Amino acid sequence: MNYNFELMASMMCADYGHLEHEVIELEQAGIDSFHIDIMDGRYVENFAMSLNDLRCIRKLTDKPLDVHLMVEHPIHTIHLFTRELHRGDTIYIHPEAEYHPSTTLQRIIDAGMIPGIAINPGTSVEEVRMLLRIVKKVLVMSVNPGNASQMFLPYVREKYDELLAIKDQMGVDIYWDGACGADKIKEYAPLGVKGFVLGTTLLFGKKATYAETLSRIRKMDM
């Protein structure tokens, strides 16, 4: 049976010596969207992509962008990102990084973007339940935020199960971020996970071309 799920490229894992080529190759391979990880060195220890990286990728493609803000108090800088994006792009914030996350989410909505929250492994569904009434997308972190090439945290399975059980009631789509192998897509796409962020586990730094990898994923028997 074929399932309709989205594949997103984690662009912090791309080859920045050939970024334009990477974007073009991924688009031609059939990627659904480009996942942009913005880190400030405070909310997480790492510095990753920048506003200039986002601006560059936005100019290179008409595909949707999914901007994941791993920054403290994004309400102070959210306008810097919304003015670079197209209507219909997605912005995720971490509720723990904001005093009043609902206010920041409303600014994302007012700018014409799709509002989302990212949930850390240590954050429970109950802690963010009311925000599910506001957002359209929930990015569930299956690793701790901040770095690529981490190991999957098995206890996060319980969180996916909880969210999948209430996603229709809340009107949200669930997305997978971190340590995403083909086995996770094969298991969770049939259960209702809408999209998967692909990084070094499956997409980048492999012998197969992006087109070969994406084609193989979409043709998996589920």
Q: What is the end-to-end distance?
A: 6 Å
CA radius of gyration: 16 Å
Shape designation: globular
N-to-C SSE string, H for helix and E for strand: EHEHEHEHEHEHEHEH
Enumerate how many helices there are, as a single number.
8
Largest sheet descriptor? 8 strands, parallel, barrel
Alpha-beta classification: alpha/beta
How do the strands line up in the largest sheet?
1-2-3-4-5-6-7-8
Unreliable segments of 5+ consecutive residues: none
Mean pLDDT, to the nearest integer, reads 93
> Helical amount among residues, as a percent range?
25-40%
β-strand percent reads 15-25%
Describe what you observe in this structure.
There is one protein chain. Strand 2 (33-39), helix 2 and strand 3 (65-70) form a beta-alpha-beta unit. The chain has an eight-stranded parallel β-barrel, surrounded by four helices. It is globular, with a radius of gyration of 16 Å. It has eight helices and eight strands; from the N terminus they run E-H-E-H-E-H-E-H-E-H-E-H-E-H-E-H. The chain is α/β, with parallel strands linked by helices and 222 residues long.
